[in-house]
Amino acid sequence: MKLLYISTPSFADCDFPLINTFQEKGLDVTYLILLPCFQLRSTLVDIKKQIPRTGIFPATEYLEFKQYEEYMDMSKVYVSNRINQKGYSWSCIKENFLLWQFIKQGSYDVVHSDIFFRGIRALYYRLNNHWVTTFHDPFPHTGEERGNYRRRYESAIKGSNGYVLLNEKQKLQFCETYNVNLAKVLINRLGIYDIVRTFVKSDTKPLPNNVLFFGRISPYKGIEYLCEAMRIVRQVVPDAILTIAGGGKMYFDIEPYKQLGYIEVINHYVGMEELAELLSRCTLSVCPYTDATQSGVIMTSFSLCKPIVATNVGGLGEMIDEGKSGLLVPPKDSKALADAIIELLIDKKKLTNMSEYIRQEYEQGDRSWNAIADKYIDYYTKILEL
């Protein structure tokens, strides 16, 4: 089977482990990363200077991608490099043609993408009768609604033959909203984002009672409830500290919390080296989201066996085994959030048991990348038989 996997830097942290597993299984996979000038800093890469030409070329022409050659085979990993942001620029027109040519000449059995092509780019769907689209977020998050999201989703649904969701909870709503046949939807999952391990330094010392929030700042992340929860936590665990790390505009007044002295705010893009250090130092991670689909933050934390306290929204309940890999609490409830954090900070044995459970559960079995990749390959085979 010959597979083309098209994605963006935003999903590279979950794409790389999957592509690596496909390679290990002997699948003939080509991985194409769309790299427009406005997405040079995201998840695994922080490109300081874009190569000044529009074209499709090996990703390793960027040192920021070349560094991953020890993690996986980069020989069939390409970037589609676009140097102008405007949709009707010469750079964009040229990229559209090159992508068309790349997809057509590759003669791929299956094209799998998590990008929603519309407008002239919707013509790509006509190049392959076996097109699979992953919907990481079937519905927009609070504060991130865009007027044209429905049209983009419907374009991808119309052009695809298969559909992937990463949690079971939203399957029925997805199918009813977009008029999709339930039988055509694959429910798969995310594995641990193990690539962060390549950046861990052995001399990093963990900090006692260090609670970590990391990821892009956005209104649906519920950070204000976490900050309030820390006031309660400190009454029981006086040396507890909270680190909030991530880029994006703070959507509430965080200054009063920063002045408390036990809440550190790192408000910038967090690269892989810094993230590995933050995770190595923390005791547990927190996802206090007010709504969600699934979370790469959880799978990144699990890569270093860090237990999670999360709100039970979207598909998060499917990712965390209550009492085994973390604790689930209601959304927008600072008291419940605080109680769960306190429980793990004061019960070191439970914390240790959770870390060991995570280690065993995600390295093998149904939650491993090996099982996830097998599920995709079986699905591709069924798509080809249609």
CATH class category name of the largest domain: Alpha Beta
As an assembly, this protein is single chain
Looking across the biggest beta sheet, what order are the strands in? 5-6-2-1-7-8-9-10
Cα separation of the termini:
15 Å
CATH architecture of the largest domain: 3-Layer(aba) Sandwich
Percent strand equals: 15-25%
Helix count from the secondary structure assignment: 13
Q: In total, how many domains does the architecture comprise?
A: 2
Largest sheet: 8 strands, mixed
Order of helices and strands: EHEEEEHEHEEHEHEEHEHEHEHEHEHHH
Shape: globular
Low-confidence blocks of residues: none
Rg? 21 Å
Secondary structure class reads alpha/beta
Number of strands: 16
Mean residue pLDDT: 95
GO molecular function: alpha-1,4-glucan glucosyltransferase (UDP-glucose donor) activity
EC number: 2.4.1.11
Pfam families: Glycos_transf_1
Protein name: Glycogen synthase
Task: Explain this structure.
Its EC number is 2.4.1.11. One of its GO terms (molecular function) is alpha-1,4-glucan glucosyltransferase (UDP-glucose donor) activity. Keywords: Glycosyltransferase, Transferase. Pfam families: Glycos_transf_1 (PF00534). With 386 residues, this protein is α/β, with parallel strands linked by helices. The protein folds into two domains: 2-191 and 368-385, Rossmann fold; 194-364, Rossmann fold (3-Layer(aba) Sandwich), CATH 3.40.50.2000. 36% of the residues lie in helices and 18% in strands. The strands form three sheets. An eight-stranded mixed beta sheet has the order 5-6-2-1-7-8-9-10, sandwiched between helices. A six-stranded parallel beta sheet has the order 13-12-11-14-15-16, with helices on both faces. The model has no long low-confidence stretch (mean pLDDT 95).
